[in-house]
Amino acid sequence: MMARAGDERDCMTGTQGRVRVALVASSFHPHTGGVEQHVRQVATELSRAGVDVEVWTVDRGEGLGEQDVDGVRVRYLPTPLPARSAAALGRLLRAAPRAAAAWRRAHREFRPDVLHVQCFGPNGLYALALNHLTRTPLVVTSHGETVADDYGAFDRSALLRAGLRHAISRTRVVTAPSELVLEDLRSRFGLHGGVVVPNGVHLDAPVGDPPALPPGPVVLAVGRLERMKGFDLLLDAVAALDDPRVQVAIGGDGSQREALKDQAARLGLSERVHLLGRLSDRDVAGAMRAADVVVVPSRWEAFGIVALEAWRAGTPLVASVHGGMPEFIRDGVDGLVVDPVDPEALASAIRGLLEAPITAADLAAAGSERVRHYSWGSVAGRYATIHAGAGAGATAGVGA
């Protein structure tokens, strides 16, 4: 059950004592995505509640150093890893001493009680090294990176696989946004137990202006323009709708932008497919409010914050059956859950909502009610309880 708001504040500031938390993230602002949003909002909520928190994240060579983001100190730390080529190995040997010193300095200056890895990658390997050196307790949150990474990092890297297994063997608590992610960690990486901590959403987010689109029903999708998000599947479904009134708006940016434009041209949809680019939170909220249907057509989705954003906007939702969304979306009650790989099935779900406004309104109303249980304050409160237990040395079995 979700904690009540007052309970969350108690967890973060009261009876369980102050715990200094380093959120060790694979990526962070100014980059965008589900992990970046999750860590940013959790850090902000913990900080507002009086928790001593910093974000340590991967320096991508941009020289960002240390910054203040929403009142939270963010350290962009070098995280070189070994590679197979001689040139890459040479670069690692030159960079490794500086990287090790930067991570040790961050630990020495902040003195965290808990190292909370968010999305295991190079960041997780460095946090694991600090855990060995300093005995600072580990908490690991997987966001589906072992299953749904567009670039297959865990399939390609034996180091990442071994590092995650070792981290799980040493961690106090492992969490994930869905049971399906935990199942993968159990079956392939030695996890026993695990805790589901869902994603969240701002319930009272400001709303920006909707995008200017031609008249007609608007089907909206939002996310990184990468293959795993399945926006090409959405275009196939819209083509199968065979309704020239329907406009498709896709918010986000990524490597598949040109491929989607080419696909739209092949399908004869160029005039009706609108790639909106990267959207601010305000713009997402505005676009959601203006849309007739929100679709999450992912080939695999660990959770799907977009679903919560659709519920918050009061817009009917169509979600993918692949991944963690069926764990919290009740098919036919507060959304429709379909297989987006089947263009006819996805088209049928979209058509059904566009042609049955009463059904669409009922789904949207149920979603608006459900979203109240998914505030970022609730997510941060659950983490705070985990941090307090980990910092105090409490365990419930390895990885439990």
TrEMBL record:
SUPFAM superfamilies: UDP-Glycosyltransferase/glycogen phosphorylase. InterPro entries: Glyco_trans_1, Glyco_trans_4-like_N, Glycosyltransferase_grp1. It comes from the Bacteria. One of its GO terms (molecular function) is hexosyltransferase activity. Keywords: Glycosyltransferase, Transferase. Residues 33-204 form the Glycosyltransferase subfamily 4-like N-terminal domain. Residues 217-368 form the Glycosyl transferase family domain. Coiled coil: none annotated. One of its GO terms (biological process) is carbohydrate derivative biosynthetic process. This is D-inositol 3-phosphate glycosyltransferase.
